[in-house]
Protein: histidine kinase
Amino acid sequence: MASGGRFLSVRGGEFAFAVLGLPLGVLGGVYAVAVLYVGALLSLTVLGLPFVLVALAGARGLGALHRRLVGRLLGERVAPPPALPRPHGMLARGRVGLTDPVAWRSLLYLLLRLPLGAFGFAVAVLLPLGCAWAIGFRLWIRLLEPGPRPVGWLDVASAPVGLAVLTVLPAALRALSGANRGLARLLLGPARSQERVRELESARATLLAENTDRLRRLERDLHDGTQAQLVALAITLSLADDVLDAVPETAPDLERLRSLVGRARGQTDDTIAGLRRLTRGIHPVALDGGLGEALPGLTATSPVPVTVRLDLRERPGEAIERAVYFCAAELLTNVAKHSGARTAELAATAARGRVRLTVRDDGRGGASLGAGTGLSGLAARLAAVDGALRVESPPGGPTVVTAELPSRL
Structure:
């Protein structure tokens, strides 16, 4: 029943976009054709380049208008492309305007939008009117031609054909809406190179913020933890030295001396352990032997039983290994804290220049990027090394998180 309702349903925004498609498509198509035609005619004159510059700026503006319409009516948010650079000098600005990929892609969108707009208008307006005429064909004929007339095959077939076509129209309109969404994503958003630059800038900003926080935590831990422990150790050793400097004619208090030396040894062990914890956050010692040694050691400390499956045919670069190790540590921490899982599985492969890490658990599911489990920050860190994070976690589980990275940067 739900699939039937879905088949027959059309959102109001989709219908409005289809109705507006014809006038907007005609205006945009005429604009694009006029720009190309007049620009070609004026290309050998002084007015050619200024005309094309102004026309491309207009195409960029029309592309922004269509992008807003797609977002408002079709619910497809298309990321806006970066603003046009403004270098110094008229020649430099003219060169930037003429080579603006956003404007040329917007011009192409306006050309392709014309046939889609005409087809959408036909599906949303003309075909329903035609179906209404076909369904009530006998009634319209009686009104137009009063009096007796023989019943022909058209009288019999018109109503079923009209109903059949009317039933298919919602699906056709939704398919056209999907095509319009895809066309807008392809031509009105930033180019792939621009998206990559934006992703790298975002990842760099995230890494800088995280590294700043990490350095501040390291400084605080050294100041409040390790430094205080060393000060306590110095005091203990000073007290032991005072006991040894007892008056020559009196024997030193051996019990107190043993107690002070034992305390000093304990404080030394605590300090060494603290330093190891701090340095582990900078570069895990376990990675000296590669991921094949580091990942099993990491899973051994997990409170949730973890099955490890490794297929490491090649050793990735140092930065990639570190990213995979910290990604695995973060994911296993999420499993222990948030999933309620009883078992988990960690699989890692490294072959043909790609590294894949997969962590699966049988917990309650419902995890997603941006859901407060640290996955968004993890995805940003992976993006900095050209990696990607994919989360599959339906309610009720299981949760499967996959990280894919190149073996070398």
In short: The chain is about 65% helix and 10% strand. The chain has a mean pLDDT of 78. Residues 192-244 form the longest helix (53 residues). Residues 2-187 form one domain.
